[in-house]
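Leucine Rich repeats (2 copies)
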Amino acid sequence: MACGLVLFWMAAGSAADRTRCYLPAPTGAADTDRDTFADAAIRQAGALPTESLGIDASSMGGDADWARYMALWKAHSSEPGSVAVRRWLGLPLEEEVQVSARKGRTSPRFLRWRAASFAVVQTPHFEILTRASEVDSRQIARDLERIYWVWTQLYFPLWVGRDAAAVSLSDWSPEATTADEFLSQRARSRLSLRQRHRVVLLPDERAYQQTVSQRQISAASSSTIAASTGFYSDSLATSFFYPQADQSSIAHEVCHQLFEEATDRTRAGATTATTDAFWLVEGIAGHFESLRYGQHLASIGGWDSKRLQYARYQSLIARQPTAPIAELQGDRTEIQQRADLSLWYSQAILRTHYALDSDPGSAQRAMIIDQLAEIYGVDVADFASLNHPHSEKDDRVDRFLLVRDDDLVAAPITGSATAICLAACEITERGWDALPPLPQVRWFDASRTKIAGPSVERLISDAAQLDQLSLEATQITPAIGSLIAGATELRELDLSWTAIDDSVVASLQHCPRLETVWLTGTPISDEALETLAALPNLKILDVQRTQISDAGIRRLEDSRPQVRINPLNLPDSSESSGAGEQ
């Protein structure tokens, strides 16, 4: 990680590369002395938003208001049964979220749904028009409320409810009086925000695509909207989703929605469509995709954020230069016309992670919130922590992406990750031992690290989930074949420059979906050709610097003419220093 991160948090006595927030909890939830595994990991690795800026209740103005708001959430986490605190937050007496449902009568004009063909599910802050199942609808309603509360803690200075919260808690001194005692003396004191944010929930991906493709919904939106997994329309003030295991798109789009609809705008005409800092509009929503839950706590950011895995690969393996912010500038129309839109998104999100995660004690977090206030037209003059000269860091961003053993030990993860790329990072067995098993991982890339077969097998407890596995230039042995044989859904495999043998290639007969196989620099022989030639979906294969004969290569080319063989175009081995060179 960037040097500033290590130095700041060593001085503070802990380590953090992410921000933690509190979640609404049911009355019977365990207290903080009995954290879940996820809570414990989040608590160890994360800092509260106000801690990152050095804010506490003794601060002045808006900073003190923010600190008291966070202190109230901390009180709820410690004592979720406090009726006074639950009443102030608008939480039901027992459950973490109040959810009601009824049959739909009239839908918005852009939907044209017949009466009783949909349901309306309401929470304190959302109205969901749904054709999904009741179970899915209620679960997403619960998750939307969680997203809302996390967003208010992260971006309190921009939140439309900040003034109501400030007035209600202005006389409270958390050091002198508990939240329960303070609010119990004020029976009528509660946070009341009447606005609900509209969400349309479709039953599945097909229904979602058909709905968002309609002209009255997709107008003025990107041409790729039908291929998306979630969509927020600022013109319709509505988010569109369907139930899915990966909820990162919901977090992304609802983050957009809350910045558009739940900010305390004081300047008319502020719009994200014309700002040249559109990179931050998308970057902050991409950063919010990293939202993870425990029972009491949520975290945002961190080295394991899914978006950072792709950025890490681009930077450290593909050697893609990191784009400076000047190259990311442009308004929404300009950006959506870029030919490299996918790469632009990755770089914008990387830049936001870099500012918010790499050095929580610096002015970078304040700079980001202040820039967001400018984009959305919010007056944050009362927040002293945000009002000082800004300077963007000139550090090399690739150093932020370079994870080391100490980072994995200091910032533990829960094991829910679907993508882990630590390729070319300085990770030894000490670092790998700090990771829990990864039962949901679909992309695992440990290339060019000191990982051995037993660690791979421990981390990938269910190889059937794997889509991509990259172990180039690692310390694996032929014993890895048993794990690969179970990777029946594998599409891409890289075992280049390792000590595997023909027996490992034989295990690929159990991986019929394989499209790309890299075996460069391994000691495999012509014995492997029969298995490779039989892979039905094979498109790319590299077996240079192996013991496969030229005649064997020609036979393979004749039997599978549609396969690209040896695309790396390495120089003749006689011109190099031998196998193992990368």
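thats it. The longest helix spans residues 134-154. Residues 1-14, 575-582 have pLDDT under 50 and may be disordered. bye
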